[in-house]
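testing teh design pipeline on a random one, pls ignore if ur not involved
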């Protein structure tokens, strides 16, 4: 089943989700609403913290990453991971997360994927991160994660996905 999921997901160029994200470094944390929109290699993440405590928008294309704060400040870097680290102080593997959030290993890295008896990923170890897939939405086809937790040392990223948007059109 995972091979069929991977093949189906490889044809999808436009996808996204809405949900909640919680981040922790073992001492400090934060959470809020996250809207993720991916079109080929272009990515837009919109984050709104709980109770209006902060927001940001991350835009990523093949050449660079741009972070816009809720106050209108704009920051740029060559990649999303370093931009998040520099400006927000968070270790968030955005480049790999675009695969992990769909239950796929990053094809550019070695990793170990464990599959449940239902044929869906249960865990993934990659880039010193462990990703646990705790719930799946099988109403969406192919089946997509509803809840996942990624950990590396003290760092943790938890995603609870409320709504997947998947465009089956693979052309362009």
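output:
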């Amino acid at each position: 089943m995972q091979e069929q999921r991977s093949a189906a997901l490889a044809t999808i160029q436009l996808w996204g989700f809405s949900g909640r994200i919680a981040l922790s470094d073992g001492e400090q944390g934060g959470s809020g609403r996250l809207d993720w929109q991916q079109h080929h290699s272009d990515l837009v993440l919109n984050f709104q913290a709980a109770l209006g405590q902060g927001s940001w928008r991350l835009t990523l294309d093949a050449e660079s990453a741009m972070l816009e704060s809720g106050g209108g400040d704009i920051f740029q870097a060559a990649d999303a991971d370093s931009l998040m680290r520099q400006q927000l102080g968070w270790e968030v593997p955005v480049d790999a997360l675009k695969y992990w959030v769909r239950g796929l290993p990053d094809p550019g890295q070695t990793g170990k994927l464990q599959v449940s008896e239902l044929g869906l990923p249960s865990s993934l170890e990659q880039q010193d991160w462990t990703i646990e897939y705790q719930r799946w939405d099988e109403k969406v086809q192919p089946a997509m994660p509803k809840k996942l937790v990624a950990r590396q040392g003290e760092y943790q990223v938890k995603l609870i996905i409320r709504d997947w948007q998947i465009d089956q059109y693979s052309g362009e």
